[in-house]
Amino acid sequence: MKAIGVAALALVLGACLGGGAKPSFYALSSASDSTSAPLAAKPELGLAVGPIEFPRYLDRPELVTRDGANQLVVADAHRWGGSLRNEILRVVSDDLGRLLGTSRVVMYPTEPRFKADYRVLFDIAEFERSAGGDVVLRVRWTIASMPGGAALVVEESRIAQPVASSSWNDVVAAESAALASLTQQIAARIAALP
User: Rounded to whole angstroms, how far apart are CA atoms 74 and 56?
Assistant: First the structure.
């Protein structure tokens, strides 16, 4: 009886400590390896990207989607490989550098060690798959002069990116594509600045 009790306890502890499915981890991908031509060739342009603000419900390791207008679904088994904040900054920094033909790009909180011309700031209101199936990115972004910090451009973008399937890989790929569209808009505005 004692041996059966010990075996049962071991099974219960095993189920509690590691019997669940292991989580899958995801990272956003940059479009910096794209074969499309840059919008500009500005090797002396210096950019600081960030800071970025977004809703607290997105500031978590798990991926989040919407199930209706007001209900969120937190995917416990599907997580970001790192901080979502840093992932967004990394992707936008890489893509802005490629699109504007400069390697002089630094992401917040690192301060530039070169002459920076502009800082790009973000206030993300939405960045998740909606109940309708598209990934929705809604963001107010600012291009500010440096070092003064005066806002030169303030715009709001809403991007609805179709998702190829309901798989989490395709959701994250659509989020990456939505960020690429946003970065194209920002790069075009920076390229047009004097």
Answer: 13
Whether the Cβ atoms of residue 131 and residue 146 lie closer than 8 Å to each other = no
Place of tokens 């009886």: 1
Q: Give residue-wise pLDDT tens across range 149-192.
A: 999 999 999 999 999 998 999 999 999 999 999 999 999 999 99
| Burial letters 149-188, b for 16+ CB under 10 A, else e | eeeeeeeeeebebebeeeebeebbbbbbbbbbebbbebbe
CB 87 within 8 A of CB 28: yes
Residue 100: burial class (beta carbons within 10 Å; 0-12, 13-18, 19+): buried
pTM: 0.85
Here the tokens at position 72 are 């969120």
Q: What is the 3-state secondary structure (H, E, C) of the chain?
A: CHHHHHHHHHHHHHHHHHCCCCCEEECCCCCCCCCCCCCCCCCCCCEEEEEEECCHHHCCCEEEEECCCCCEEEEEEEEECCCHHHHHHHHHHHHHHHHHCCCCEEECCCCCCCCCCEEEEEEEEEEEECCCCCEEEEEEEEEEECCCCCEEEEEEEEEEECCCCCCHHHHHHHHHHHHHHHHHHHHHHHHHCC
